Sequence to fold (276 residues):
Amino acid sequence: MAHYLIGDIQGCDAPLGRLLEKIAFSPSRDTLYVLGDLVNRGPASAAVLRRLAACGDGAHCLLGNHDLSLLAVAHGHRAPHRNDTMDDILAAPDRDAMLDWLRHRSMALHAHGILMVHGGVLPQWTLQQVLQLAGEVEAVLRGPGLPAFLARMWGNQPDHWDDGLAGADRLRVVVNALTRLRFCTPEGVMDLRASGGLHQAPPGLLPWFDVPGRRTAGVTIAFGHWSTLGLVQRPDLLALDTGCVWGGCLTALRLAADGDHEVIQVACEQAQAPGD
Fold:
């Protein structure tokens, strides 16, 4: 029995197939934890969803910003971006089944001593608060209020957490942090535009995981979303978006109880040009 973390797939089904073959993955024996952005920008988003859904309880998948974008486009609350590649899902005969499966995925997971998110965690949040807030979003995604939520989900404001936030503003901050966050101020004000590497932080901003006093500092956090960051392994941090869709690698991390996790990678064909 083996447990694997996998970084952003983004519709790249052929590399995913090669990676699962390389690790000899069996859904009846092993477990995948996929860190979001299952779809979009790559050539085969529908195939990725079908493959992961077929794994049943052998695959636990997080929702990333591209996955939420798919739901918003499918429900008519967001126009497709010119570089989106989600038509194979939207036009598929099993479209409804794929979208229903997707909206029942998680916003955050805590397993094997690791907190898993797609984007980041605000410095004010504890582990339990992250899971509680993720659960609030998951309940809306899975319930009858999904269309109304998707209609009000997008936007960069509010840009910081306040315990008094309620309604759409509260859910928007949670979604933005868990799926889009890279940089913020030491006080936790999010910048959702900057996407460069660690040495390209705008003035006054820090990577979310390096904010002094972060309340999850004692928890190992695994995340994707940040391809310019690349593979990072620290005792408290596992960054696994290695730019598959940009012609990089698709990365799996085989978890080890002693923290000496094994990195397994496959090379990927470039599906999007840099900057797209």
